[in-house]
Amino acid sequence: MTVTTLDEEPAVPATIRDVARASGVHISTVSRTFSAPHLVNPETRVRVLACAEDLGYRPNRAARALITGRTHNIGLIVADIANPFFPPLIKAAEGQARHRDYHVFVADTNEDQAAEEELVHALAKQVDGVLLCSPRMSNSLIEQVSREVPVVVINRQVAGLPCVMMDVGQGARLAIEHLLGLGHRRIALLGGPRGSWTNREIRRAAVAAARAGGAELTVLGPNHPTETGGGAVADQVRRSGVTAVLAYNDLMAIGLIEGLDALGLRVPQDVSVVGVDDIALSRLTRPKLTTVATPTAAAGRTAVDMLLQHDSDAPRGARGRGASAGDHRTTAQVMLQTELVVRDSTGPVPPPGRDGTGA
Amino acid sequence: MTVTTLDEEPAVPATIRDVARASGVHISTVSRTFSAPHLVNPETRVRVLACAEDLGYRPNRAARALITGRTHNIGLIVADIANPFFPPLIKAAEGQARHRDYHVFVADTNEDQAAEEELVHALAKQVDGVLLCSPRMSNSLIEQVSREVPVVVINRQVAGLPCVMMDVGQGARLAIEHLLGLGHRRIALLGGPRGSWTNREIRRAAVAAARAGGAELTVLGPNHPTETGGGAVADQVRRSGVTAVLAYNDLMAIGLIEGLDALGLRVPQDVSVVGVDDIALSRLTRPKLTTVATPTAAAGRTAVDMLLQHDSDAPRGARGRGASAGDHRTTAQVMLQTELVVRDSTGPVPPPGRDGTGA
DNA sequence: TACTTCACTGCAAACCTTTGCAGCTCTCCG
DNA sequence: CGGAGAGCTGCAAAGGTTTGCAGTGAAGTA
Q1: A20 and A117 share a domain?
Q2: Does A315 lie at the interface with B, CB-CB under 8 angstroms?
Q3: Which nucleotide is nearest to A45 (CA to C1')?
């Protein structure tokens, strides 16, 4: 009487030793079958692979990480996953990483500096590198972190570190020029969160462009970069008497439009509004949002490539003379182009005396 | 002449051995200082902690994972990060996990079954458990996976496995009843993706509610669960002559409204539209969307709790008698309540002969 | 005083894999 | 026919941590 064994996956996973035993070779041969196939006899290789398949063997990544010093994981730290700006970037980064046999830890800091710092430390020991996306920490803190673990910074410029930036300055200039072209001369800038490089860039460029065009630019902020944050300043915008607003991002722009609507001001008839990011949502609101499109997916992919460009490098924590994390790493800084997408939330300046301005 | 040493982080990270040497104890005492503090003399403890702090020591998780068999990572597999339904869930899950000293791998399957299966296998060896969110694979595949790694299923019911569900059936019933109350008798259901449990639940409940109310329900689909998918069926909706639509999710509902608008049909005057999910976006579109609110954040937290409830369990892959992954794990199935949020996209049935229906 | 108990610490094996080195067998060339 | 070289495989150390067991000294008990 024969007993057929169930072909379930075994409860305790097969190790390299099991495979070696099953295929009659030494464990080192099994190891090489996976990590350096060209070093093992083709016949042996197929046999080993067959046994491995049979036993459902998968290399233990912890053990591998222990000896190689590389985890094949990368960390991605973002300010707020729920902000629709980030998911496309995350998605692109993750796809690119997977493509290179890496996994991605995503961590959310809730727009909090302290959480950001804590997270990056917690992650550092567990990943081969970290993508810092729209960091709110100080440059010096970022530099300190970069000595502990390889870092690529997204949406910020830090000297001596690899960075992927989007040229929001140029975008802001285009936006202001667009508004100037429509006749607007009193414009507000809705500032974003404190510590945001993007925020500074936008402001710098907007101020310059407004001045060049002979317009008056009022800066309102900093604000929380969400609909709520945008809605909260609606009244302030109304009282300021401006006819157009450039917001730090689309979410704030949309919130502002809502808020203005509640105050009886219509967009774009009474006030023109421009956002930044071109999130999917901005095509769906009414009016459709005029905005500065940023190439978020490309940024995610590029950042992963930059982080992993030295894939074959000596691992971190190699014995003997240790190379500091940033050594002989080309610290390229990439600036991606943005463009202005004109939709329905901007229009010609309203005739004077309509509201607010005249006492 | 004294030389002050730079207090930079060392390029090669401190190990438990360095801390032991610095504090004059054995490595096992250092280990216990972190993993079982009550076993070590308070004085020794503070000394060790001071040295560890000083050296910037952080335990190597790979080494720990190697011996304990627990990685302190969990995997979270979602259909599409860019779908705004998921980020709040991810965020909640991640926060809850971090709270218990776990990290989260987020993986995106692009709504693809094969990618889903591949991902869960790739992740299995690297995490202590997997959260399967809105899986598109078959139940039997899920069961097979669950033998390899502990699994909690979100948004789907699988017998014998811990599940966190949202009662979309009840939500759909409320939605249909709401439409019936407004006088609608010809209603369409916009189906979601094939393989979605949520989709089946909604359909089942909607069909039942419509029948009970003496209404005619047309099912359109399956469709891609995005704005595009919703917009694509606008013409079909118009031709069908229905006066109200229940969509699989908010994204499709919004896309449909756009599409109908392009065809000259206004919401809610000509057609009423109800979505499901209550994503942040649905409050921002015009008209504001009537929708079934699902407690996504709560689902994320609950799922993590269920996965980690046996945190002190014997690790997977313990030597000797191995317990199958699902052993003595209480396979609770949690059903979270949903509710109908009435906004501006639904209204009374239009007077007959307005459009489409009459010749 | 002698014995037990307790609190604490050290010892050493074990986790699974990678990799430099050495050894083996064959082939090829002189 | 001898030697060199190539191709393949085995050996064993190493990586950082956890943990059962044993050992130490001091305090408590009889």
Answers
A1: no
A2: no
A3: D8
Closest residue in A to B253 (Cα–Cα): A284
Q: How confident is the model at residue B46 (pLDDT cuts 50, 70, 90)?
A: very high
Shared domain for B158 and B184, answered yes or no, is: no
Q: Please indicate if any CB of chain A lies within 8 Å of the CB of B46.
A: no
- Domain residues for the domain of A143 are 69-165+296-310+330-336
Q: Give A114: exposed, middle or buried? Use CB within 10 Å, 0-12, 13-18, 19+.
A: exposed
Residues A159, A258 within the same domain: no
Answer whether residue B221 is part of any domain.
Answer: yes
Q: For residue A281, which phi and psi values (nearest 5 degrees)?
A: -55, -30
Contacts with A285 from chain B: Cβ below 8 Å: 284-286
| Nearest chain A CA: its distance from B1 CA (Å) | 27
Question: Same domain, yes or no, for A184 and A102?
Answer: no
**HEC-encoded secondary structure of B219-241:** EECCCCCCHHHHHHCHHHHHHHC
Residue B90 lies in a domain: yes
Q: Are strands B216-220 and B244-247 parallel, antiparallel or unpaired?
A: unpaired
Could you say which residues from 191 to 250 on chain B have a Cβ atom under 8 Å away from some Cβ of chain A?
227
User: What is the layout of strands, in order, in the sheet containing A272-277?
Assistant: A216-220, A186-190, A244-247, A272-277, A290-293, A339-341
B121 touches strand C (CB under 7 A): no
Where on the phi/psi map is residue B16: left (φ > 0), alpha (ψ -120 to 50), or beta? alpha
Percent of chain A's residues with pLDDT above 90: 74
What are the CA-CA distances from residue A235 to residues A230, A246, A350 (Å)? Answer: 10, 16, 18
Q: Residue B300: what pLDDT?
A: 97
Token duo for residue B87: 């980020």
Q: Which of residues 24-83 of B touch strand C (CB under 7 A)?
A: 24-29, 32, 38-44, 63, 66-67
For residue B5, pLDDT over 80 is answered with no
Do B82 and A82 count as a contact with CB atoms less than 8 A apart? no
Residues A125 and A178 in one domain: no
How many independent structural domains does chain B possess?
3
Using a CB–CB cutoff of 8 Å, tell me whether A100 touches chain B: no
Per residue in A282-329, pLDDT (tens digit) is 998 889 999 999 999 999 999 999 999 876 444 444 333 333 343 445
